[in-house]
Amino acid sequence: MPGIGLTPFLFVSPQLGLDDVDEAHEEGIVAIINNRPDGEKEGQPTSLEIEKRATELGVAYRHIPVVAGKMTTEKIEAFRSALKELPQPILAFCATGTRSTTLWALAEAPQSDADAIISLAREAGYNLSNLRPTLVESNLTHSAAKGRSEHTDAPLDLGHPTTRDVVIVGGGAGGIAVASSLLAREPSLAITLIEPRSEHYYQPGWTMVGGGVFDNNLTIRDEIRLIPAGVRWIRASAAGFEPQNNAVILEDGEKVLYKTLIVAAGLKLDWKAIPGLSETLGRNGVTSNYEPGLATYTWELVQRLKKGVALFTQPPMPIKCAGAPQKAMYLSCDYWRRSGCLNHINVEFNTAGNVLFGIPEYVPALDAYIDKYGIELGLGQNLVAIDGPGKTATFEMVFDDGTSITEDRHFDMIHVCPPQTAPDFVRSSPLSNEAGWVEVDPDTLQHVRYDNVYALGDVCSAPNAKTAAAVRTQAPIVATNILNAIHHSPERALYSGYGSCPLTVEKGKIVLAEFGYGGKIMPTLPFIDGTKPSRIAWLLKEKMLPWVYWNLMLKGREWLVKYETSETHRTARPVALLDKRK
């Protein structure tokens, strides 16, 4: 049965796509309740689209949209009525299933025990413990309210949550690593982690999956297995911040209060920014190692292509792992070379940037592989549209005088790196800078306006490369600075901007780029010359780094992490890493 069962007759689910409606029908669902407002996130199907598909299949449909933070008695009554009136079994959905679960709990509360409701929700993976006072009150006052109908558009008070020592938004590499680093230093901390996903991805491994080196299953683990013992997990999406009230707002309107906040929410892959891309991604020869599960399609395309045109693209900065688009290309070319068909494939690397790589010391080695594989290098060329069925990609070239032209290119295979931004709920929050990222001091990773807020990983404004290696260094720095602040110590750990990009130039060899703020070269292991391709760097990437990620970094065991400390800290960096691309 699709979704997760709250009762034998009601299932809840994250956002449904049109294909999911078909699957739900095939699995026996006869009614669907949509609790998500239209336009909440780019790319989600509209209510009319879902209703049309459901109607075609004979599935009953009802739209009861709930805006995050605006749970009202009117919506609860509408949900209660839908449960009575619609045929069963019913599948209710929203962005993550949390709003649907909350609606069910509040609709059920007058005639059911609060603890029983909370227990059923917990078994389904949704923590409604903060809702308990509201559920209890609803049950106790049901008799007095019986026969009286009170509808209001005023948001409900969903209880008074306990203030936690630390709240972390995001359960990816940064969130798990910093939680572990904090607990390794002070096990008594009360920590809450907010993360909607049930799966955790080792994203650096997707390049290797796309090159036929790793099996995709090796890059995925259950989130619950990685969360440190004692950390409270709220399986929901954050919808906003109220730093003046020390509160995180969840998608259902619940507030999670904190003494210290850490934002590790990652970034948004903006597929919709390129017209036609989201509609064709994963078919028609259009792929991307940036999307969960699609690296296997990359490898299928690489093996299938014997002749034709292969395009690889890179958007304007910033992006996570700036070398990843090239890595996909080099591993593909190496496979075609070994298979004897590279001479029959025209390979192009089209990048919006004006240099091959932002750190000059590593460019000669990469240039050598561009020549070796016969790759046509297109600098200053940005992908602006794609026609999957027509096998056509449109690129824009902007000239120094501000004029621009577009050019259509045929492809048989195209690997796309999408434009990337901060998550919507971060961009629209008081925590963001003008570019949308959480605005932190680049040295301490502490927010520049809210002293009890920190950020790390892709979401923060520090001008370092957005890589997993950066997170590995940032996590203990954030943990140290938080605990020093709690204990009123003036000492601060300082982040050097360290990041690493193992550039897989062929199967068995890597150019190991390691650098910090201002493009400073920062090698970790003195016996590896990162400016030259080496076998030992490949073994590090293939054998050691996955083990380091799962068994050291995510468990607070800080392997080869070094940082300076100071009782005062700088407030700005004069030269950002990405400025060197000029």
UniProtKB/TrEMBL annotation:
Domain of life: Bacteria
Name listed for the protein in its UniProt record: TIGR01244 family sulfur transferase
Residues covered by the FAD/NAD(P)-binding domain: 165-282
Record-annotated Beta-lactamase hydrolase-like protein phosphatase-like domain positions: 6-109
InterPro entries: BLH_phosphatase-like (IPR005939), FAD/NAD-bd_sf (IPR036188), FAD/NAD-binding_dom (IPR023753), Prot-tyrosine_phosphatase-like (IPR029021), Sulphide_quinone_reductase (IPR015904)
GO MF: transferase activity
Keyword annotations of the record: Transferase
CDD domains: PTP-bact
